[in-house]
Design a protein that fits this description.
Elements lengths: L1 E5 L2 E7 L3 E8 L2 H36 L1 H25 L22 H7 L3 H11 L4 H8 L3 H15 L4 H11 L4
Antiparallel strand pairs: 1-2, 2-3
Helix pairs in contact: 4-6, 4-7, 5-6, 6-7
Length: 182
């Protein structure tokens, strides 16, 4: 009995007694293994051939354009080095300054009663002088003390006369020097 193979399929059988008989089916397993082996061999050889060709192309490119490639590599190295060095040199350096500074020990404020009595300043005038020292205006002082603005002007002008001051700032300075306000 002889099998006749058409492509990958068994097309028929030829026997001595009965003659030609058509049969449809796949090739036996031992034929499948050989075909798989051939396909795998051709695939591996094709991959190796492509790799060799790419290596030859790469070697040709490197040999033909070596000056440009090395120039570009050197330029890249110097660019990175320049950026790093520029950032390193232009970074502001931290300075640590250690200095001893005398700190005044805060003692409780003591009102100079003798100067207060000597100048004849009333408690309300002293209160207005303290508010002037805090930077309040006549209107703000009047609102805070619940008096009219004219009353504040009267008290502040009397304080200026008693301290011999011409301006608010001068009155505050003299008041601090004499120990009347903080």
């Amino acid at each position: 009995m002889t099998r006749i193979i058409c492509g990958f399929m068994v097309c028929g059988m030829l026997s001595e007694t009965s003659g030609w008989r058509p049969v449809r089916g796949t090739v036996r397993p031992h034929m499948d293994r050989t075909m798989k082996r051939q396909i795998l061999t051709y695939g591996v050889l094709g991959g190796i051939l492509i790799t060799v060709l790419k290596l030859i192309e790469y070697r040709f490119l490197v040999l033909e354009r070596s000056v440009e490639i090395y120039g570009a590599l050197i330029a890249a190295v110097f660019a990175v080095l320049g950026i790093w060095l520029g950032l390193k040199l232009t970074r502001p350096k931290d300075k640590v300054v250690i200095r001893e500074v005398p700190v005044a020990v805060e003692t409780p404020f003591l009102l100079n009663e003798t100067k207060l009595n000597e100048l004849g300043i009333t408690p309300r005038e002293l209160e207005i002088l303290g508010l002037i020292a805090k930077g309040l205006s006549n209107r703000e002082i009047a609102e805070k003390l619940f008096v009219s603005e004219n009353t504040v002007k009267t008290h502040s002008s009397r304080v200026f006369d008693k301290l011999s001051a011409k301006r608010r700032t001068q009155a505050v300075q003299i008041g601090k020097e004499l120990g009347l306000i903080r």
